[in-house]
Design a protein that fits this description.
Length: 156
């Protein structure tokens, strides 16, 4: 007989948000807030709790760039990759980040302090180029400005 390990957090979140298909995204978002990413087991547990397919949960989780399905660093840097940011110097800013942190897009530093990702529009096109570090937006970036910002995070 197969033993099913109960995921108390998933049950708690289903109690909070409900057990309908419409509850899926809020539950996944809360799991990311609490655990910093979605494990495969979390996705299976959510599917079981909501009585939907694991493929449906995985498809939703991987569609949204802010629902991390991999362990990330303490500080997740998401740099906007839209044309607006590119036209305003995003590539120079990105190069500065990569050189400063010694990681490339899609990587996490060996000390697990930083992860660097490109993402679609973060809603700051009017102040491009822009990035988020966790939930904090930084706008009108230059290589000099991003160096100062990163120095503060490196000190933390």
């Amino acid at each position: 007989m197969e033993t099913i390990i109960e995921n108390e957090l998933v049950r708690e979140l289903a109690n909070k948000h409900g057990r309908t298909r419409d509850s899926l995204l809020p539950i996944l978002q809360d799991l990311v807030v609490r655990n910093r990413y979605l494990s495969r087991q979390d996705m299976v547990d959510v599917a079981r709790e909501l009585d939907i397919s694991a493929a449906d949960v995985f498809g939703t989780a991987t569609f949204y760039s802010f629902l991390d399905t991999e362990v990330r660093g303490k500080y997740v840097i998401r740099i906007c990759k839209t044309i607006s940011c590119a036209m305003k110097g995003k590539n120079d800013v990105l190069t500065t980040i990569e050189e400063t942190l010694k990681i490339r897009v899609g990587e996490t530093s060996s000390d697990r302090k930083f992860s660097l990702l490109e993402t679609n529009c973060i809603g700051w096109c009017h102040k491009a180029p822009a990035m988020l570090i966790n939930d904090t937006p930084y706008t009108e970036l230059t290589p000099e400005k991003v160096t100062e910002i990163l120095r503060e995070y490196i000190k933390k």
